[in-house]
Amino acid sequence: MKRNTLFVTIGLIGLAGFAATAVGAGNDGHSPKTPLAHAIGPAKNCIPITSIRDSEVQDDWTIDFHTGGRDVYRVTLPQRCNGLGTYRSFKYETSLSELCNTDIITVMEYGGPGGGPRGSCGMGMFTPVEIAK
Fold it and tell me: What angle do CA 64, 105, 23 make, to 5 degrees?
């Protein structure tokens, strides 16, 4: 009986150490490589799809949308979108001519066996920003 108790105790200590390492290692979906940005105007609910030139996934929480007018709109998602920072690609479907904070994006894995959709997440507000250099 004592042997089992000792084993369980060691196992729990080991798991506690693993959990502390995982949390302490910054595994929260935020990347230290995400460039800093400061808002240069009020956030918008939507931006016209035709104005989007490029999108740049920064991490599981952050997408920068570059427009033809050289503006950048940063979207900070209201919840972590697991896999977004890893696969760095997403798709969206809308019947409107705008991409809005109420739309849903789907994380996509392209290439390799088993590619395809990896989960969906809600968008956030589009904040015009200036990216720090």
Answer: 70
Query: How many CB atoms sit inside 10 A of residue 104's CB?
Result: 12
Residues spanned by the domain of 110: 34-131
Q: 115 near 103, Cβ under 8 Å?
A: no
How many domains does the chain contain in total?
2
> What are the tens digits of pLDDT across the range 12-59?
333 333 333 333 345 788 899 999 999 999 999 999 999 999 999 999
Residues sharing a CB contact under 8 Å with residue 32, sequence separation 6 or more, in sequence order: 26
For tokens 């789907």, what's the residue? 106
Residues in the chain: 133
Report how far residue 102's alpha carbon sits from residue 78's, in angstroms, rounded to the nearest whole number: 11
d(CA 56, CA 69) in angstroms, rounded, equals 16
Q: Are residues 25 and 55 in the same domain?
A: no
**Residue 44 phi/psi, 5° resolution?**
-115, 150
Written as one letter, the residue type at 39 is A
Predicted TM-score of the model (pTM): 0.76
128: phi then psi, degrees, rounded to nearest 5: -65, 130
